[in-house]
Amino acid sequence: MKKVAVVTGASRGIGQAIAIHLSRLGLNLALNFYGKDEDILETVVAVKEHGSEYLVFNNDISIFENAESMIKETKKHFGQIDVLVNNAGITRDNLLMRMSEEEFDSVVAVNLKGAFNCLKHVSRIMLKQRSGAIVNIASVVGITGNAGQANYSASKAGLIGLTKSAAKELASRGVRVNAIAPGFIETAMTEVLSETVKEGMLSNIPLKRYGKPEDIAKAVGFLVTEESSYITGQVLVVDGGMVM
Ligand code: NAI
Questions:
Q1: Residues designated catalytic
Q2: Which tens digits make up the pLDDT trace of 18-33?
Q3: pTM for the whole thing?
Q4: Per-residue pLDDT tens over the stretch 150-173
Q5: CA 162, CA 164: separation in Å to the nearest integer?
Q6: Span from the CA of 172 to the centroid of ligand 1 (angstroms)
Q7: Probe ligand 1: pick from 102, 189, 210, 235, max atoms within 8 Å of CB?
């Protein structure tokens, strides 16, 4: 029987690459995103091509009930959930002095609470199964901090704390929880940055290239398979050597 993965934010960028890579590894998928219905089509076509069965959930993952119904429906349809990738994330960058309450709350709601919402509901299923792998997509700025991203870096640091606490709670029943901290990855999220900012970033990357969504997807593939069966509670930095 094929294993089953839930991937949030699967319509583009890193989440899309993760969904496609997991389908290549032979998993069936629940694909979450939040946008226009047609946004998910590219992902759907690719996972179908690899022979995966899939469900689509277009909803805001920061709403507790949305996560609850997605996990319930996925379990009902496939009978099991083996992998959860909390990837959905947003930025609302601003300097602390200018940051509005809404900018802070919305980023924490999607990036941190969204992950909690899915983790909470999936953990019950995985504990019963006595197996499962969860990967939270954090960020290097959750480790280093970043001027202009107090909300975002706080949400990602929180996600790292959530990862380690969940890893400690779930380990005795064979459920592993790890985080990936990407550096600068070329997606719609980073496209909006100015050329000056981008060039500044590149000069700080020892491997001398920006990351691709596939670089993160391959690390996720490692963390959800038997290849990493003795690894839990860790933060894998995938950033071309930028933070070390
Ligand atoms: P993106 O902006 O290209 O894609 C974001 C995805 O999240 C989309 O599928 C979107 O529909 C979904 N999403 C947004 N709000 C949502 C909500 N409320 N509920 C459900 N889904 C929602 O972003 P990208 O660059 O692919 O980033 C993916 C993850 O990787 C994010 O968590 C981001 O913080 C993290 N990351 C990205 C880096 C980069 O350089 N691009 C660096 C470090 C971390």
A1: 152
A2: 999 999 999 999 999 9
A3: 0.98
A4: 999 999 999 999 999 999 999 999
A5: 6
A6: 31
A7: 189
